[in-house]
């Protein structure tokens, strides 16, 4: 927390408007991580993510999926090209306003050694009522397990949430995302397997949260994205295919291979 950010905010930034539609554009983005100069992680990446639709990003491990999510949040700056939200270059708007419009459910959610309630309301820059916290917990399918704790919403979750199961942590992260009522929702699905019950609880929570929002899901379980409006398939930092699920299956290209590989691995 003491670490200084390498990002330089412009001295004059504008606020990202409150009522954005939630269109996300990558325009010829080239990116390398500051710790690995010379190693291109994203190569001339261009795509448009439609507002209020669900877009799934898929690809092998290391393809650059989580990196895309990080660039939308402007955790790093691109080397070439630009990332736009509703036509605003993310470098031109204040980080505060950018992060207020976007919620992220990260691949490994970080919880704080504080109460369940504080973890859900964390980072919201306004007063949050207990009713709102309860509503977010219900939407995220957290309410039942929280009410089983003897201290309910005052239960302390342990360092990094160690006193919760993986599925419970994910659902708390979803509640945290929900309470912000974001226009853009980023979900970086956990690679760790959940049991069938938790998996169903997590995915129904997400489905409820997605309604009316631009949702970008990094998906590992390809069976869960059949309803996506658009699938972006990546390999080695580039988009190799994009289109609807059924279209890409029919094409029998890179996405088809990925699905096949997963089906044989699951057998
Ligand atoms: N913080 C970092 N510093 C340096 N390199 C990184 C960092 N994070 C990721 N990378 C590298 O960038 C590339 C893309 O990583 P990324 O995390 O985007 O992959 P991914 O598609 O999300 O993979 P997975 O499915 O395993 O989550 C990888 O080669 C990875 O080693
Ligand atoms: Mg990842």
TrEMBL record:
Identify the GO cellular component terms for this protein.
Answer: endomembrane system; mitochondrial inner membrane
* GO MF annotations in UniProt: ABC-type oligopeptide transporter activity; ATP binding; ATP hydrolysis activity
| Transmembrane helix in keyword set | yes
Residue stretches making up the ABC transporter domain:
24-261
Places the protein is found: Endomembrane system
State the UniProt keywords alphabetically: ATP-binding, Membrane, Nucleotide-binding, Translocase, Transmembrane, Transmembrane helix, Transport
Q: Which residues cross the membrane?
A: none
Provide one Gene Ontology biological process annotation: oligopeptide export from mitochondrion
Annotated membrane topology? Multi-pass membrane protein
Q: Name one Pfam family in it.
A: ABC_tran
Q: Please give the superkingdom of this protein's source.
A: Eukaryota
Q: Which InterPro entries match?
A: AAA+_ATPase (IPR003593), ABC1_TM_sf (IPR036640), ABC_transporter-like_ATP-bd (IPR003439), ABC_transporter-like_CS (IPR017871), P-loop_NTPase (IPR027417), Type_1_exporter (IPR039421)
Q: Which family does it belong to?
A: Belongs to the ABC transporter superfamily. ABCB family. MHC peptide exporter (TC 3.A.1.209) subfamily.
Q: Enumerate the PANTHER family for this protein.
A: ATP-BINDING CASSETTE SUB-FAMILY B MEMBER 10, MITOCHONDRIAL, ATP-DEPENDENT PERMEASE MDL1, MITOCHONDRIAL
**Protein name as catalogued:** ABC transporter domain-containing protein
Its organism's taxonomic lineage begins at: Eukaryota, Sar, Stramenopiles, Ochrophyta, Bolidophyceae
């Amino acid at each position: 927390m003491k670490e200084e950010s390498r990002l330089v905010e412009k001295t004059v930034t504008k606020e990202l408007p409150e009522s954005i539609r939630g269109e996300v554009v990558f325009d010829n983005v080239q990116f390398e991580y500051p710790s690995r100069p010379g190693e291109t992680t994203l190569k001339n990446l261009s795509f448009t993510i439609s507002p209020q639709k669900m877009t799934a990003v898929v690809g092998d491990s290391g393809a650059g999926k989580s990196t895309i999510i990080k660039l939308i949040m402007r955790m790093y700056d691109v080397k070439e090209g630009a990332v736009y939200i509703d036509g605003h270059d993310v470098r031109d708007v204040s980080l505060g306003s950018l992060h207020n419009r976007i919620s992220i459910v990260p691949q490994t959610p970080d919880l704080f050694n504080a109460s369940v309630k504080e973890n859900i309301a964390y980072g919201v820059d306004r007063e949050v009522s207990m009713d709102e916290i309860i509503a977010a917990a219900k939407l995220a399918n957290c309410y039942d397990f929280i009410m089983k704790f003897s201290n309910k919403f005052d239960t302390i979750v342990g360092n990094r949430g160690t006193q919760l199961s993986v599925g419970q942590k994910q659902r708390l992260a979803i509640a945290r995302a929900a309470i912000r009522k974001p226009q853009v929702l980023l979900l970086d699905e956990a690679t760790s397997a959940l049991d069938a019950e938790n998996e169903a609880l997590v995915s129904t929570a997400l489905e409820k949260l997605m309604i009316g929002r631009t949702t970008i899901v990094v998906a590992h379980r390809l069976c869960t994205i059949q309803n996506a409006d658009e699938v972006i398939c990546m390999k080695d930092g580039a988009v190799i295919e994009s289109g609807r699920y059924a279209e890409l299956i029919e094409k029998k290209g890179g996405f088809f291979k990925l699905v096949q590989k997963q089906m044989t691995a699951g057998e």
